[in-house]
C-alpha cells in the first residue's frame, strides 16, 4: 500500500479529526489509486483510534471539494478487467461504509463543488454543510458520461430521497445544484456564509450528536415514498420503464436503464446487498463502449476544444467590449442576446428601427421567462436589456470592436452591409459573418481587410445551442482567428475551428444524414420507419422533420450552386438519390417544408400534424424492406464517412473538433462520442468499420466507399486521435 498522502489527518485537542482531501499530485481530488489507499488507511486508523475520536469533519484543501472518478482510469477499463473494476468499487464502498458506521458523527464540510464521487463521499457523512458559493455545484452527473454513481450514490440517494425523487431529481438527468438548490432538494442540510461558519456548524453538529447514525441505519427506517413492495408505489412502478423508453426513444443509452434497475432492485434489499447490486450495474457500464465514447467526447474532447487547442498561441487574448450585430432576424436577435448576456454592449442593426427593436424584444421575452422561473433577477434582466441598442443608422456602430453579420443569406447583400459599416466601426474591428452556406473566402473579397474577416457560424436557437463553428477563410489572419476564438469563449460557447469549404463541416455533414433519410423514402421505405430509425440510432431530431425545418428548397439551391462550382472546376457531378425525391416533393406536390405549411409532414397552425399520408401513396412500396439495422447505420455511416473526408481535405484539422462539433452542433448521437469516435469505437475497431462500410457500399452505393485516410489508419492499426490520450 502506498503512503496515505491524499487524505490529510488533522487532530485537535478536542477529539475532532479533520480529514483534509488534498491530492498532492493533482489540482483536484479524484478517486484514483492513491485515494483508494488513503481511504482504506483512514478507515483503519479511525477504527483503531475510535475511543479517542469524538467526531470527524471531511473537507478539502482544493478549490473544489472533490472532482469525482478518475476518468482516465475509468476509460481504460476493458471487459477482461471487469472483476478488478468491481473489486475496486466495492473497496471504496466498504471503506466509506466503515466510516459511516463508526458510531461517531461524521460531517462533510463542502467548501466547493462535490460532483459524482465527491457527492458520494458527502452522502456517506451524517451531515452536510455547504459553503454558500454560487459556483459550487452538487450532483451525480455520471449518467452524462454513460455511467452510474458507483460509490454508493444510488443506494444512498434512494434511501435519503426515495426512489422517485432520487431518480428524477438526481440520478437520471445528472442535474447539478448550487448550494441553495441543493438545500431545497435535500442533498445538503445547511448552507454556511463563510468557511469559518461552515466549520463552526460542523463542530456544532458533532457536539450535538455524539452518536450520530445515518437515517437508514436507524431501526425501522423506511425508504421515503415506499418501495416496489409497497402497494401504492407498486401501482406506479410500471410507469418508470415506460417513461424512460419514451424519453430515450429507443436510443442506445444503457446508463439510465442500469441506474433505474440499481435503484429499484436496491430498494428491496438491505444496504449491503444494494451496494453489490449497484457495483454490478456500474461494472457493466464501465466495461462497455458507450461510457468510453461519452467520456472521450464529453470530458476529454470538450476540454481540449474549450481550452484552446484550436487557437493560435501568438496573439494576446482580447475581449470584445462593443459588438455590432447586423440583421435583427432570428439569428441576429439570438446573437445579440448571447453577447449582452456576457456583458458586451451590443448595437443591433436592421434596415428599420422597428425591425431592430423587434430583435431586441426577443431578448426581453427570453428574460421574462428566466425571471418567472427564478433563473435571473429583474435587476439582471434590466441590465442586460440596457446593453442592447437597436439601430437603423450605420453611424450608431461607431466604436464597435467586433461585427457579427446575420442578414439574409445573399452574397451581394452581405458585401453591401459590410461596405456600409467598415469605415464606421473601429479601424481594426473583427469582421464576422454568420453565413451558413456561403464561402467565407468569397465574402471576404468584399471588405477592405480580408485578413480580419472570418466566419462565425452559430446554431439555432442561439441562446440554447452551445456550439459556434469558426470558419477560417483563405485570407483570414492568425490574429483574427485568435480573436474570434476568444469572442466565442467570452460569450461562453464552445468553438470548433474549420477551414472554409462548401457547407464547412457541420452543414455539409448534416446534409448527408438528411439525404440518407430522404433517399430511403425514394426507395419506397415506409417514412414512419425512417423516422423511427433516426430515433433509435439516437438522433435527437427525426430526419424527415429536420428536412421540413430546413425547407426543401434550400438543398436544391445548395445543390445547384455546388454542381455549378464542381463543373466549373472541371470535376464530375454525381447526383444523390435524395435529389429526385426532393424535386418531386417540391415540383409535383408543392410541399416545401414547414415554412411553406406542408412538407414530409402536414402542419396545422404551424404545428406538426403527422406524416403526410401522400408519402405512402406516392412513394412507399410494400416490397421495399431493408434491415432496420441498415437504416440506422446508413445514417450514422454517411455522416462518419463524410467527416473522414473533411479531415482528408483539411476542412477539419482536429478529431476533437469533429466529435464535439457533430454532437453539439448537428445532433450526431451522443452515445457514439461523435462522428470519429463512433468509428474508433465500432465493433472490431477501424477494420470492423471498414468492412461494414464496404457492405453498405455494395448494397446502397458508392457514397459508402471508405476514404483512403480511413483505410490507411485501419491498416496501420491506428485510431482517430489528436495525440496521446487516455
Ligand atoms: P432572418 O430572415 O430571420 O433575418 C435576417 C434579417 O436581416 C432580417 O431582420 C432583415 O430585415 C435583416 N436585413 C436585411 N438586410 C439588411 C441590411 N441591409 N442591414 C441590416 N439588416 C438587414 O434570417 P436568419 O435566419 O436570422 O439568418 C441570418 C443569417 O444567418 C443567414 O446568413 C443565414 O444563412 C444564417 N444562419 C441561419 C441559421 C438558421 O438556422 N436560420 C443558422 C446559422 C446561420
UniProtKB/TrEMBL annotation:
GO BP annotations, alphabetical order:
fatty acid beta-oxidation
Q: Where is the 3-hydroxyacyl-CoA dehydrogenase NAD binding domain?
A: 323-500
Any one Pfam family here would be 3HCDH
Instruction: Tell me which Gene3D superfamilies the record gives.
Output: 1.10.1040.50, 2-enoyl-CoA Hydratase, Chain A, domain 1, NAD(P)-binding Rossmann-like Domain
What keywords is this UniProt entry annotated with?
A: Fatty acid metabolism, Lipid degradation, Lipid metabolism, Lyase, Multifunctional enzyme, NAD, Oxidoreductase
Source species, domain of life = Bacteria
Q: Which residues form the 3-hydroxyacyl-CoA dehydrogenase C-terminal domain?
A: 503-603
Q: What InterPro entries does the database record attribute to this sequence? A: 3-OHacyl-CoA_DH_NAD-bd, 3HC_DH_C, 6-PGluconate_DH-like_C_sf, ClpP/crotonase-like_dom_sf, Enoyl-CoA_hydra/iso, FA_oxidation_alpha_subunit, NAD(P)-bd_dom_sf
Q: In the record, which residues are listed under signal peptide? A: none
- What reaction(s) does this enzyme catalyze? a (3S)-3-hydroxyacyl-CoA + NAD(+) = a 3-oxoacyl-CoA + NADH + H(+)
Q: In which pathway does it act?
A: Lipid metabolism; butanoate metabolism; Lipid metabolism; fatty acid beta-oxidation
Q: Name one GO molecular function term.
A: NAD+ binding
List, alphabetically, the PANTHER family matched.
Answer: TRIFUNCTIONAL ENZYME SUBUNIT ALPHA (PTHR43612), TRIFUNCTIONAL ENZYME SUBUNIT ALPHA, MITOCHONDRIAL (PTHR43612:SF3)
Q: Which family does it belong to?
A: In the central section; belongs to the 3-hydroxyacyl-CoA dehydrogenase family.
Q: What is this protein called?
A: 3-hydroxyacyl-CoA dehydrogenase
Upper taxonomic classification of the species?
Bacteria, Bacillati, Actinomycetota, Actinomycetes, Kitasatosporales
